[in-house]
Amino acid sequence: MDFPAFIKLVESKTGRPMKQYGVRWKGHCPAHDDQSPSFSCWLADDGWICVNCFAGCTTRQIYKALEVEKKDMGPPLRPGMSRTAAARPATPSAPHSANKNGHPGRNKPDYPNARAAVDAVAALLRRQHPEIERTNCFRYCTADAKLYAAVIRFRNPKTFRPIARAADGKWQIGDPPILIWFPYHAERLGNAKTVHVPEGEKCVLALEKYGLVATTSAHGAQCADKTDWKILSGKNIYLWPDRDGPGEGYIFDVWLHLRAICPQIKVVRLPGLPEGGDICDWLKQHKPWTEDEIKAALAEEIDLAKTYPSPPPAPPPDSAEVENT
Ligand SMILES: [Zn+2]
Questions:
Q1: Cα(52) to centroid of ligand 1, in Å?
Q2: N or C, where is the chain less crowded by C-beta within 10 Å?
């Protein structure tokens, strides 16, 4: 099935229109009595259609409601074409196509281990950006601590690239073949009653340094839907938005996933953040403080957190305006 036909199918089954948000489409879930739009779907890099219900319907329930099977969700087959060939993008320059960002889909080479895949990503990027440097490798594990993917962070220019373990145990450049990620540091979340969710792995590491249990999703502010958040079920959640529009959008998307499965979701709004700032910037601002002072200040901000959704605070008055009054 092609993606436009799938959107039409969902609309006809629910009798409600779907709406496009970037690469995602959102609308009412076909599998449950959905009063607020809980359903989202998107076309993955390899041509498969992915679905998610924030309220917790399983993929199987969604397929059943739509009267489709797994095989219908793949790229359309033309006569004499194999499934793999159909998965190739029509043109190499098509949006979200394979090689543009080193994503999988076309001529996916295998690497014997994660290190070899990391080196291959770096070599690919270096062809375009000779100055590029690798700064971090964020390891993604399942809840039982099995490494299945990693996100490599580069600078000069700043960019992120995923690598993932294929079914045969070899490594490839691109998203996991199951097309869904587990929250970052999933292996550390199991016993936690409270989990903090900032945007990005670097911010998770910053919060962990001060003794907090934290997680985030791979792929940044636009892609909360690529993560299976069910591991956070039953936990109290604190969202730590970046101070900008995409940051607010991100915590809203995360909230959509968690609202039905978490008893309490609050938002921590750090004071004095610059535009686009996050917990890492806040820590830089408070560098002279001791570890205990930072911990105490963070505990205070967590205490002040309000139930989400709540409106972001008004922007501080312009300093020039203040002088004039
Ligand atoms: Zn549903």
A1: 8
A2: C
